[in-house]
């Protein structure tokens, strides 16, 4: 029987480690952009967002709409810029958990709508996973955080 000496670090691992800062930049841009755009839209139509929250039976819908839109927009912007990345990612995780529990409880929808709401629910879980990875890895060198750490 032949004996093989496998290198413990694969080519994919070496490539990812070598490009880690660029990958973190791409991750921040891709995941943060969703929240900047959506949060900005909510802030520009605060009344409509508050109305949708009131329709879900939430108290103080205008206050919740303002807070939610601000966390979504400015938390997403902080992630894109890599500024206070871990704190911003945690704030946007909290927003995403709340939004998921408010709007995407697929099990409460009629059977014909459950499939789409389940996809939205699972998508939000994946987004939370991406933010958890950013919390673990940090913003990378190409970020405000990286710039501040170099000083």
TrEMBL record:
Coiled coil: none
InterPro entries documented for this protein: DoxX (IPR032808), DoxX-like_oxidoreductase (IPR051907)
Keywords: Cell membrane, Membrane, Transmembrane, Transmembrane helix
Spans through the membrane: 21-40, 60-80, 87-107, 127-144
Main location: membrane
Source species, domain of life: Bacteria
Topological category with respect to the lipid bilayer: Multi-pass membrane protein
Keyword Iron: no
Subcellular location: Cell membrane
Family named by the database record: Belongs to the DoxX family.
Protein name, UniProt field: DoxX family protein
